[in-house]
Structure formats: C-alpha cells, structure tokens
Design brief:
Number of domains: 2
Number of helices: 8
Strand content: under 5%
Radius of gyration: 23 Å
Oligomer: single chain
Order of helices and strands: HHHHHHHH
Largest sheet: none
Amino acid sequence: MLETVIGSDRDDRHDAEIRAHLKAITSAVDRKRFVANLMAEGDLSAARAVLSAPAYLAGIDDQGLAEIRDDATKACDPERFETVVVLRQGKESAEKALAAAIRAIEEQLNAPLPGVDRPVPSVPLPLPSPEEQAHITRAFERAVAMQDDGSPQAALDA
C-alpha cells in the first residue's frame, strides 16, 4: 500500500535533509502540520523521507509516524484507507466483545450455585496472556481475511 508513496525507483538524495529539517521543527504539532501541508499540495517527499527511515531520525514519535502513514495512505489510496479504518474498528469491537465475554463467564463461574447454602470458594479466571491475546487477534484477522476473500489461502496469508 505504501509502496505507492515510497516508490522503488524514487530519488532519495534529499531524504536526510528533509528529515533534518523536520527534526529541527521544535513542535510536534508544527512538524505534522508541515508534512500534512506538503501532502495536501501533492508533494509526498516529506512523507517518503519519514516513512523510509526510522522515525526518530525526523524527530517523530510512534504516534506521529502512524498519523503520517495513515495520511499518506489516505492521499494515495483513499478507498483502501477506508477499508483499513473499518477493519481497525472491527478489530477493536471484537476485542471489546471478547473482554466482555470473558468478564461474563467469570461472573457466571463466581455466581452462587442454585440450591447450595454454603459459600463456594471462587477462583477468578486469569486474563489471557499477551501471547494468548496476540493469538486471538491473529485468528480474528485470519477470519476477516477469509471472509473478505472467501478463500482459506487468504486466511493463511493474513
């Protein structure tokens, strides 16, 4: 997707200078505004310079880099960008639903049993580990890819 912005046959002679100029802009807001204004004018040189090297070389943090990447993608392929936005929202919704389901199961497991007069010791279920959460997320992404493409191979490539 970003190959359209970065390009494989581009002239990168000025990238270091562009990154140095961006790094010299003291305000992160002004830095982003500078790149956004260039992109609005059709000049993707600053976006290319930032996206083709580690963000710290341009004085940009991870969030700023993500915003520039999104802006560049939106400028180059708006339809695809909208698809990415919808998929991100779906992933976020699925993660919230999974967390709610886990909480509901925990509450049911810790609820008193009908007909039992004595307290039953409760053992809360552990939350998924980061590795388990990553596995669940990958499985969800594969399911989305398979649903979009309809082929099992698309799910494996995700």
